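Chapter summary example.
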Amino acid sequence: MFDWLFQKKKTPSHYQEPAAPPFPFPVHVAPADQAMAVYDAIKGKGEGLPLFLGGADDVANLAHMADLAAKEPAIVADTLAMAAAFRFPKECWKFADGTIPEVHDDIAELRANPGTWPDRVEAQTALPALIDLKTGQPRTDIRVAIIPTHENAAIPAHLNFGGWNACPYPHVLVAALRKWNRDWGAELVAMTRDTMEVRFPRKPATRAAALELYLEMVALHSDTLMDGDPAQFAAEAMVSEYWQFWWD
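The structure predicted for these 248 residues follows.
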């Protein structure tokens, strides 16, 4: 009787997905073997900061978010002001009533019982955005954007990146990147439609410091950091160059 309620509606044959606006900032396309040289050259000019963008589909998706911020500079200014007032990571863990989201368990419990520390771990030394996920091989063409800022941590504000699904709002990402830059020299090097990839040139030297860094990372609700013992991720933090944050 009610079968019509559950029938999948067919998309009209004349329907077309709304076209993505042009990406609001300059984008260079480079062969894989020249991508890092292009990145470094942009960085050296001082006219903006480079950012790897992934594939053409990623650029189109990012353009939808970045277009609004590019047209409304107040959005960027407000995001940066909110980031300055945001206490990362403490505010990520608390609801309005001060309780800790139970999905993450209790931070004190995670510190006290992080799991078994592994004897060895595999370091992440390659930037994921440069790899074609379908083939596992380096991308044929690498896209590098020039973002109009001199503060690397401010890039999520200029792209208006965040605030969808489990991804934190842009000001939270800015606050996290600012803290990690102070503590570890971290810099945002790549963004795709649903990932943020960060380089950590300095790494924790002790297990305690590595565990604290992991707890800060997991505060961003990244799906890639939710499954597994904290000790495993903390051990990886002591040796890995790059970290990818992904939100479904």
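To summarize the output: The longest helix spans residues 56-71.
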